[in-house]
Amino acid sequence: MRKKLFGGNNLPAIILAAAVLAYVWFLSRPPEPFDPAELTPAETLETYPSQVSLSCQPIRSSTALSLTFENHTDRTFYHGDSPDYERLDVELEGRWYTIPNKPYSTAGVGRETGPGASFTYEPLLDEGYGDLPDGRYRICFGIWDVTSRGDAPLGEPDGIISVCFTVEQGKFAADPG
Question: Is residue 153 predicted with pLDDT exceeding 90?
Fold first, then answer.
């Protein structure tokens, strides 16, 4: 029996089957958690002092996020168009850390959102970060108040707003806190 199973012409099939199983096992493993020692502590966020908000909603069977920026002011804000955002942070051991992204993963086209308007888009997190390990995250979104700037160069954002979400077993969920 042993000779029949492992001998002769069955050996290539057994090797192929083992390779396929190893490949499937490797692909189905969850991503490794982030190590705080390998990340940069995130800058402290100071909430933009105006009536603007950022919210998120899981979409496509919770495998992606939709973000909505709402402007409840009498001002016009410039911000990045999809897939732009300022940065992605992860909370580890009670502290926020910035996750490095792949080059050009957030390069979008500028957009303005006027008084009382909103803007919804899908950040391309897979392209910038790959599969995210389970945990709590926040997307930080830079905005520029073009009403007060006029034609002045943009430079650093006038404010950064953020929204938190969680990842559990590869699925996104809005964070109530």
Answer: no
Instruction: Please answer whether residues 79 and 144 qualify as being in contact, where contact means their C-beta atoms are separated by less than 8 angstroms.
Output: yes
Strands, E, within the chain: which ranges? Answer: 40-41, 52-59, 64-71, 77-80, 87-92, 95-98, 110-113, 118-121, 135-145, 159-168, 171-174
> Could you tell me the pTM of the whole model?
0.75
Intra-chain end-to-end CA distance of the chain, in Å: 61
Cα torsion angle, 157, 78, 160, 60, sign: negative
Closest listed residue to residue 85, CA positions, set 115, 129, 131, 46: 129
Both tokens assigned to 140: 């930080």
| CA pair distance 89, 93, nearest whole angstrom | 13
